[in-house]
Amino acid sequence: MGILGGIDEAGYGPILGPLVVSGAVFSVPDDRLDHCLWSTLRESCAPKLQHAGGRLVVADSKYLYRPPGVLGPLERTALVMLAAGGFHPRTFRELLDLIAPGASQAMDRHPWYAGQDLSLPVSDDVGDIATRANAVRRNCLENGVEPLGPICEPLVEGQFNSIVEKTRNKAVVMLTQAMRIVDRMMKIDPNSPVRLYVDRLGGRMRYREALTMSFPQWEIQILEESAGQSAYRLKRGSRTCDITFTAKGERHHFPIALASVYSKYVRELYMRLFNRFWCAQAAGLSSTAGYYTDAQRWLREAAPHMQRLQIDRAALVRLR
Asked: In the chain, which residue ranges form alpha helices assigned H by DSSP?
């Protein structure tokens, strides 16, 4: 068996809320590492809503999420794929404990998250998670595929700012989180070949230096560095790990699309806690998704309440 995974992020652009980088990982027969999972799992999963025909839609999170607040389609995909892998979190914190150890504790160092939780699912229109998960699980078993669940590396505001202050580059921060996920995936089975697809992070083309710094014991071979994708082979003894960073990867690789779903879902759950706290503190303060323009509006409205609560703007607003 081989390890097949995808990595994507949510929250790179906003200045409020966390940055979330996630991976979706599967065990597959090693002779099928190059096969398209949309094709392999076509009886239970579809890449588009228009042709789903009752199947689970696994697609880019921007396609599934309809702001403001329509979380149902995104949450359905996230929870069904979690359940197909044997994960059944009942709350947001249970989910974090499963996929991002330590993240729940980091939340509690921020007043707008501290002590809060959410029951899952948060949407009323996710449908029958168990029935859909059984269909996906059965389809996976028929094809020798095992969903191993998400791996997540979220950074809440204080963590994000602390690292950016040291690196002066938020693209480096995001890439570092992605490398942490690569490392966790490679450790799932130390003997299996690994094939990973990563959405091109921050628009960069060359990743050899970052891979060498993250995996100094591995030999790094450049397979391709082009406008469309950058591919590398890591070798250590008889073991190999092929990593491809690809532009618009969520359109071409099932694991990247699913990773984007997990990242967006986790970030939206954080933002629900964020907005619940602040809206309870300030009557009439409307919610925010944290992106720059609306965040500036929100910060103006929230300023007197931040002062009253003695919350330092520098701890709330992300650098860069």
From this structure: 37-40, 61-64, 72-84, 92-99, 103-107, 129-142, 157-167, 170-186, 208-214, 254-281, 292-308, 313-316
